[in-house]
Design a protein that fits this description.
Helices cover about 45% and strands about 15% of the residues. The chain has nine helices and seven strands. InterPro entries: CheY-like_superfamily, Sig_transdc_resp-reg_C-effctor, Sig_transdc_resp-reg_receiver, Tscrpt_reg_LuxR_C, WalR-like, WH-like_DNA-bd_sf.
């Protein structure tokens, strides 16, 4: 039986990884779970063009080439993509930075299919998912109850607070309404992961006030 994503259609993912053995392994895991791998490649462009541009989620290896592909991760997140970082790095600093740049979640390759498949499903459904390594990183964060938002997530969130509609926010930032929805969903996920769920706009405003993202004068 296939795994259904948003709208009842089968989930489609694109794999960005420069290790063929890893790509093959993820393909097998996805196939067994009823998830379609629509494209794969060693560069972020595979997730931005062709079939990969319409995939529901991006399985992203942070280590592309000589060093961490921070710019590629930022580019994907800024496009509103749901990025599941699948990396060899297990340090807290790297995991938290990926969340700050806009990743939906972060897990290590040592955590394998046991967590990768649930992480993909959660990302597509805009649900929080915290694998063990990420959970440890968040617990070690000096501000564990304050989610780390990317710059664009903060911009969209605050614009939505001061706007009558998501359509106006989309026009302001030259985005689609779907992408605006994705940013706001990611913020909700991060607050839920931090143990401070915010299921309504009013609740998000309250969280933003508590965390100093905005003040009453700004509202």
């Amino acid at each position: 039986m296939g795994t259904e994503g948003v709208g009842g259609e089968m989930i489609g993912v694109v794999i960005v990884d420069d290790h063929p053995a890893v790509v093959d392994g993820v393909r097998v895991w996805c196939a067994r779970a009823g998830i379609a791998v629509v494209a794969a490649g060693a560069r972020a462009e595979v997730a931005l063009r062709g079939p990969g541009a319409k995939a529901d989620a991006v399985v992203f290896d942070l280590q592309l080439g000589a060093g961490p592909a921070w710019d590629d991760l930022t580019r994907l997140a800024d496009e509103g993509r749901r990025v599941v970082v699948y990396s060899q790095h297990a340090d807290s600093e790297t995991a938290l930075r990926c969340l700050e740049l806009g990743a939906a979640t972060y897990l290590t390759k040592a955590e394998g299919h046991e967590h990768l498949i649930p992480a993909i499903r959660a990302a597509v459904e805009d649900r929080p998912y915290t694998p063990p390594v990420l959970g440890g990183a968040m617990a070690a964060d000096p501000r564990p109850d304050r989610p780390v938002l990317s710059e664009r997530e903060r911009e969209v969130l605050l614009a939505w607070f001061s706007s009558d509609s998501k359509q106006l926010v989309a026009q302001r930032f030259h985005l689609s309404v779907k992408t605006v929805d994705t940013y706001i969903a990611r913020v909700r996920i991060k607050y839920a992961d931090a143990g401070r769920p915010a299921g309504t706009k009013a609740a998000l405003v309250a969280r933003a006030l508590q965390d100093g993202l905005i003040d009453l004068a700004g509202l």
